[in-house]
Amino acid sequence: MGQWFSGTPDDAQHQDLASSFKAYFKNFKMENKIISQEATSLIELHLQKGNIQGAISAIDDALKEINNAPLHIAVTGESGAGKSSFINALRGVGHEGEEAAPVGVVETTMERTPYKHPNFSNITIWDLPGIGTIKLQPKDYLEKVKFKEYDFFIIVSSTRFKKNDLDLAKAIKIMKKNFYFVKAKVDSDLRNEEISKPTTFDREKVLKQIREDCVRNIKENKIDEPQVFLISNHNVSEYDFPIMMDTLIKDLPAQKRHIFMLSLPNITEVAIQRKRDSMKQFIWLEAIKAGVPAFVPLKKFISDHEEEKLKASLNSYRVFLGVDDASLQHLAKNLQVPVEQLKEMIKSPTLLETKKEETREEMFRRYLENFFIHGGGLLGAGLNFKKIFYLQLYLLDTVANDAKILLKETYSGNQFKPKPHTAADHDRT
C-alpha cells in the first residue's frame, strides 16, 4: 500500500520527484534551511525507495516541528540600557502600542517579564531584570531567571559593558548557551559626538572607535571573539541590526529559523527575500506531500475549498511580509500619507478580486498561466504538484514584491520621508 510500484506510468515521475527534492534543498545554504539535515535525508530516503507513506509521515513531522517550535529569547542588561526599546524593535511594535514593553520608566521589577510576538504566539521575548538589580552571583542569577528555557541571550548596554554583564556572559557560556552583546543607542552617541566636534566629526571613524572600545573591553575580561552589534532601536535598518538578524538566524536550529525569520521586521530587501525563500521551502514541503498526477484539464479547475485556502494563504503572506491592512495603516501613519496612496502602489490587497466579466475560474487559470510564463515555474513544470501550490507561490511572489516596493519608497527619501526622531523619542530603560 505504501509503495510506488515500478512499471506504473507514474514511476518515472516519482523518481523525478525524489531527485528534484534532493536538488531543491541543495540550493540553500545550511544556515538558511528550515528543516534539519536529518529530516531532509529521511525524506529523500523514503522518496528514493518509493515509500509514499513514509515520506508523507516524515514531511508531516517536519512541518509540525516548524509550525509548533517554541522560541524563547532572553534580553538582559542594566536599567537604562535600552532593553524595552530593543524588545519592541524585535517584535515590530511601536513604543506607544498597547502590547509594547514600557519605555522611559525606572526598572523596579525583580522578576522576568514575557512579551509575546503580536503575530507569532510561539515566540516569547523575555525582559530579564539586570543582574545588578537582583544582586546575585551569575550562576544564581541564571537559575533564578530559568536559563534553561531560553534559546539564546542578548546582553544590552548603552555604554561600555559592565563587569556584571561580562561575568554573566561567562556564566552563560559555561551553561553552553549562545549570547550576543548589543550596544544600543549608537545613534545618540553619534549625535553627541557631532555636536561636540562639528568640524572634525567622522561618522565611520566614530563607529569604528565605539566598536573597538567594546571589543577591547570584553576581551580584557577574558571573553574571546565576542559578537558585538551596534544598533539604534529607533532606526533598525541602519548600523548592525541587519547583521545581527543574519547571525541569530544562522545560529538557531533549523526548525526554529522559519518562525524567527517571519517575525523580524522588513528592514532590507535581503530580509524580505529571506522570508520569501523560507516560505517557499515550506510550500515546497507541502507540495511534495500533496504530490498528484501531472496537470490535466479538470471539470472544476478550483474547488471552493481550494479557493478559500488561497485566500487564507494570501492573508498569511501579507501578515508575514508586513503588507496586511493593519501594517499599511501603521506605515501610512508614520509616513503621514493616506493609506489609499500606499495601496495604489501594490497588488496584493486586490489580488484575488475578479473583474465583473471574469469568473473566479478564469482568473485562476490566468494566474497559473502567468506564473509559468513569467515566473519560470519555481518548482519546475514537470513535477507533479497540486495546482494550488503553484498558485500559492505566485501569491507569495506578488506579496514579497509589494513588500520590497514599500521598503524602497519608505527609505528612498524620494516620495516619503519617515518622521525624524528627537531626543524625547529615546527611552531610558
In short:
The protein is α/β, with parallel strands linked by helices and 429 residues long. The protein is 52% helix and 7% strand.
Describe this structure as you would to a colleague.
The chain has 429 residues and is an alpha/beta fold. It contains 17 helices and six strands. It has helices spanning 11-26, 37-49, 52-68, 83-91, 131-134, 138-144, 163-174, 186-196, 203-220, 241-251, 254-263, 269-289, 304-320, 325-335, 339-343, 360-375, 387-412; strands spanning 71-76, 113-116, 123-127, 152-157, 178-183, 228-230. It has a six-stranded mixed β-sheet, sandwiched between helices. Strand 2 and strand 3 (123-127) form a beta hairpin. Helix 6 crosses helix 7, helix 12 packs antiparallel against helix 17 and helix 16 crosses helix 17 (387-412). The longest helix has 26 residues, at 387-412. Mean pLDDT is 80; it is low at 1-9, 292-299, 375-384 and 414-429.
Largest sheet: 6 strands, mixed
Count the beta strands.
6
Gap from first CA to last CA: 62 Å
Question: Roughly what is the average pLDDT, rounded to an integer?
Answer: 80
Regions with little confidence, pLDDT below 50 for 5+ residues:
1-9, 292-299, 375-384, 414-429
Question: In angstroms, what is the radius of gyration?
Answer: 25 Å
Strand order of the largest sheet: 2-3-1-4-5-6
Number of helical regions: 17
Helix content, binned percent: 40-55%
SSE order: HHHEHEEHHEHEHHEHHHHHHHH
- Supply the helix-strand structural class: alpha/beta
What's the overall geometry? globular
